[in-house]
Design goal:
Layout: E1 2-10, H1 19-32, E2 49-51, E3 60-70, H2 76-86, E4 91-99, H3 106-109, E5 110-119, H4 126-135, E6 140-143, E7 146-149, E8 154-160, E9 169-175, H5 184-190, E10 198-207
Parallel strand pairs: 3-10
Antiparallel strand pairs: 1-3, 1-4, 2-3, 5-9, 5-10, 6-7, 8-9
Length: 212
């Protein structure tokens, strides 16, 4: 058996594909690729694969990570070519590496996520809104009927140069782990801006140990 770590992007064509549908898309892709997938035990066995972190509907991403388990050892070059031949539009394969079978699950090692926020309309006082948000001692938000403080989950916010279309952008680092996670659309709402006026792209994930 071998465990393969896949680095991939979720691009514009799959912006409105949710996490469960993304999982199913990868299942179909790996089956089409003809890889010797390892299956879970139980009444309804399914291919063993784990995506490191769910991505909200309407988000795109770079450098997402997924682990897959194969029953047989294959050269990495062969695995890569098989996936590339089967991968659908909206997913981009960047790289893959073999990792130890006994390494902890990616979800248990996750600490933070970095996002790029692109605003669709000019916001003249964007810098002031950012500073006002960071100066708040507490930002209470509600998610699924539960309230929690968003402020300690915001690790940093920085303005960057406008994108090629001249749209304003922010880069934010948000806490993401097994117990708590911040969402950039909730942060934008706390700034008094409708998240419908922004595009959200996850740039990378951070972990508490080397995962290569």
């Amino acid at each position: 058996m071998m465990r393969i770590r896949v680095n991939f992007d979720k691009t514009e064509e799959m912006r409105f594909t949710g996490h469960l549908d993304l999982y199913r898309t990868w299942e179909r892709t790996l089956r089409r690729a003809g890889l010797p997938l390892a299956y879970s035990q139980g009444f309804k066995p399914h291919p063993r694969l784990q995506i490191a972190a769910a991505l909200p509907l309407g988000f795109t991403s770079s450098n997402d990570l997924m682990d897959i388990w194969l029953e047989d050892e294959l050269p990495l070059s062969s695995i890569q070519s098989k996936i590339l031949a089967a991968i659908p539009p909206g997913l981009q394969l960047n790289s893959l590496v073999q990792v130890p079978l006994n390494q902890p699950a990616l979800q248990s090692l996750l600490t933070a996520s970095e996002y790029q926020i692109t605003f669709l309309e000019p916001i003249s006082d964007l810098d002031q809104r950012v500073q006002a948000l960071l100066q708040k001692p507490c930002i209470v938000i509600e998610r699924r009927g539960k309230s929690f403080d968003l402020r300690p989950l915001i690790l940093s916010i920085a303005g960057v140069s406008p994108n090629p279309d001249g749209r304003q952008q922010l880069i934010t680092l948000l806490r993401t782990d097994a117990t708590l996670h911040a969402r950039p659309d909730e942060m934008v709402t706390a700034m008094g801006i409708s998240p419908e006026k922004a595009l959200f792209h996850r740039l990378r994930l951070y972990f508490n140990q080397d995962i290569s």
